[in-house]
From TrEMBL:
Cofactor: pyridoxal 5'-phosphate
Compartment(s) of residence: Cytoplasm
Organism: Metallococcus carri
Protein name: L-seryl-tRNA(Sec) selenium transferase
Coiled coil: none
Length: 426
């Protein structure tokens, strides 16, 4: 037995005392490190690896980062890319999240030592940007804001909505089913393509909980169409819940047809609901702005606690709203000339062509609105190699070509992108 190589397999406690494993335990947790050691020891006992290789094998099983999520370079030209996490946070928001990761005064008044309004600074930042709102509330996503509003205002009652606004959002979720889940009844008015003020007026009555105005942000309807604006709906006497979807707080000249919170509140919306991680450019969140009494009614509803956001979201949202222009708006406002020099430099280094392309807002915002730009044209097969590289680069495949669009690529990443492209081209 003295010559049995299995006797040379290092003990678990010996390996855990090794500084390399101690550091790994600090980063990934002791249980995860212990599991990797056990797997490597079993491999040595079965003869798959030598006892001397146990430590190296266990360390190789440790992930390179604490999270399995991998940072990717978005070269698709789609700014708010749902599959890539929608809005990239600004540097200010990232710094705010890191600072809030420990203990914070998220719900504590340091001056008095008493409990305070949760996330007061983020809410105040929103109200400063949208002075038309009497109050603000933040929940965990845009759909949650709409669910909370219809539950608090119309549970057991009717929600009056145009048939042309009964939209389906990503992953098969449909507005009628969302509203039905709140215990409210849908009262559909008008037709798919045309709805008039009289249609709403005939439907509003004692059973009306609210009128819902939902911006169909993920599609556009053209031709023989008509709709009713918030300014007209606000004359019917029922609360108007206006869902702008995309999260613009104020008009954006680049997207003149996209609704915004300030405009719809000025037109008479009781409350406006929106997303925080689309055109607002912040973390995933649902924002409610509007009449103070109605917002307070939503805040006091039992469902609000289940939809509450954490301190990291509040920190990122405050930094986004009060800070510099977020990356999303910079990317949307970028013109072909803004990325021309960078695109041509990389294309020349690779000896390939540059072509004109149209980017997209994405995330259900400004459907059909092109964002003029340019891209590096490569063989279609390169797209897969780019995705599997380090760092992963996600490009667009169209017309039999792989198109690498720099609209959403931060300029400091240009050299890493060029290296990835060279590696993918072999």
């Amino acid at each position: 037995m003295s010559d049995d190589p299995r006797r040379r397999i290092p003990r678990t406690d010996t390996l855990l005392a090794d500084p390399r494993f101690a550091a790994a335990a600090e980063r990934h947790g002791r249980d995860r490190v212990r599991a990797a050691i056990t797997t490597a020891q079993e491999a040595a006992r079965s003869g798959e690896i030598a006892p001397e290789d146990v430590a190296g094998q266990a360390l190789s099983r440790m992930p390179a980062a604490p999270s399995s999520l991998r940072r990717v370079i978005n070269a698709t030209g789609v700014v708010v890319h749902t599959n890539l996490g929608r809005a990239p946070l600004s540097e200010a928001a990232v710094e705010a999240v890191a600072a809030a990761a420990g203990y914070t005064d998220v719900e504590f008044d340091l001056a008095t030592g008493a409990r305070a309004r949760r996330g007061a600074a983020a809410l105040d930042a929103l109200l400063e940007r949208v002075p038309e709102a009497g109050s603000a509330l933040v929940v965990n996503n845009g759909a949650a804001a709409l669910v909370l509003a219809t539950t608090a205002l119309a549970q057991g009652k009717e929600v009056v909505v145009s048939r042309g606004e009964l939209i389906e959002i990503g992953d098969g979720f449909r507005l009628p089913e969302l509203i039905a889940s709140t215990g409210a009844r849908l009262r559909e008015v008008g037709t798919t393509n045309r709805t008039h003020l009289r249609d709403y007026a005939e439907a509003v009555g004692p059973d009306t909980g609210c009128i819902l105005k939902a911006h169909p942000s993920n599609f556009a309807m053209t031709g023989f169409t008509s709709g009713v604006g918030v300014d007209e709906l606000s004359t019917l006497g029922a609360p108007v819940v206006a869902d702008i979807g995309s999260g613009l707080l104020a008009p954006e000249p680049t997207l003149p047809a996209e609704p915004d919170a300030r405009t719809w509140l000025r037109e008479g919306a009781s409350i406006v609901t929106a997303s925080g991680d689309k055109l607002l450019g912040g973390p995933q969140a649902g924002i409610v702005l509007g009449d103070a009494a109605i917002v307070e009614r939503l805040r006091r509803h039992p469902l609000a606690r289940a939809l509450r956001v954490d301190k990291l979201t509040l920190a990122a949202l405050e930094a986004t709203v009060a800070g510099p222009t977020p990356p999303v708006l910079r990317a949307i406002r970028a013109t072909a000339n803004d990325v021309a020099h960078r695109t041509r430099r990389i294309a020349e280094a690779l000896g390939t062509d540059v072509v004109e392309v149209d980017g997209r807002v994405g995330g259900g915002g400004a459907p059909g609105i092109p964002l003029s730009g340019m891209a590096i044209a490569l063989p279609a097969a390169v797209a897969e190699r780019l995705r599997l590289g380090t760092p992963p680069v996600v490009a667009r495949v169209a017309d039999g070509r792989c198109l690498v669009d720099l609209r959403c690529v931060p300029e400091p990443d240009d050299d890493a992108l060029l290296d990835a492209l060279r590696a993918a081209l072999g």
